[in-house]
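Give me the fold.
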Amino acid sequence: MATLDFNDAYIVVDEDRNILVMRKLGALPPGIEKDNTLSFAEKQELKPVENVFVETQLSLTEEGKKLLAQLKEIVITKDAGSNLNQPGRYYFHPQRVKELKDIISNFSQSE
């Protein structure tokens, strides 16, 4: 599998399912990076999107799928303080993006 280049990830949960979205984001527009009134999520949404990948494009081993499911659960329940079926968008903090990249790097199936 080709290396996925991304620096942002989030989970979208709706009534029927959840999906992991990974994005390569560019820099914030000038002047916005110092705006302390904007949250992390708001700043992420203002960055230009250079590329997008979704969970279905991953080719993980069974162990990788288990680790990914655990990581998604941690992001929703521990990091966001929500429950798994609560609709919303749950952002991965930078450390969680690194953990996600490690799972993909170490548990992708070769084609």
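The CA atoms of residues 58 and 108 lie 7 Å apart.
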